[in-house]
Amino acid sequence: MPNALHNPSGLMPSVLFDLDGTLVDTAPDLVFALNTVLQEQGQNPLPYESVRPLVSRGARALIHYGFQLSPEDPTFEPLRQRFLQIYANNLDTHSRLFAGVAEVLDTLERWGILWGIVTNKPHFLTVPLLERLKLYHRAQAVVSGDTLAVKKPHPAPLLHACQQMDMPPQTCIYVGDAETDIQAGQQAKMRTLVAAYGYIQADENPHTWGATAILDEPLDLLAWMTYQTVEQPL
After folding, report:
1. Of 49, 148, 172, 214, whose CB has the highest number of CB atoms within 10 Å?
2. Alpha carbon 133 to its chain's center
3. Is residue 18 among the annotated active site residues?
4. Is the full-model pTM beyond 0.90?
5. Which Gene Ontology cellular component terms are annotated (predicted)?
6. Using omega within 30 degrees of 0 as the cis cutoff, is the peptide bond preceding 13 cis?
7. pLDDT per residue over 90-120, tens digit each?
8. CATH architecture of 4-26+95-225
């Protein structure tokens, strides 16, 4: 891949993506895992539409929502571990790239723009999923939720990805579907884009997050980037 800093197009030379709800629609398999645990415990499964907006918040949020338990409850952690076990066995049963993501990644590579992934998903789930989707070896950086001692909204994971790509943060875009993604990107001094097609709750308003722009679909990223250059101020 050519060095994106010498990209004749003058476009931003690197893009980092969140994973769940931004690159990959993982909700079907995560909702399945939660509903399986609920049914094992003698409870009714929850409607897909009610669980989907919570997916980006991770296993703890899903267990809390499904069982109405606090993390301090002694039954919480065993339920979370069971959820993770079921999900690990169904990582890519129904999870797929969002429509348009494949074209976005192909185009970024054709333009000579480096791209990577920064997610709060743990390493033991992130890497197998990316490998099965044939993304792991294409990404120039992969930072999971347990790669460092901190995770988003702390900016350190994003800065770590920039180091892996040998790119200064101010020349990088971060795309995510959660407010914590935007907070992390802002603290890292990056341009931030909201993936509004992702897992956003009905009572959330991405327009108040202070992001650089909002993407209604993945392909909007390419259109937005054609009007941005490294020289334009943040």
Report:
1. 172
2. 15
3. yes
4. yes
5. cytosol
6. no
7. 999 999 999 999 999 999 999 999 999 999 9
8. 3-Layer(aba) Sandwich (3.40)
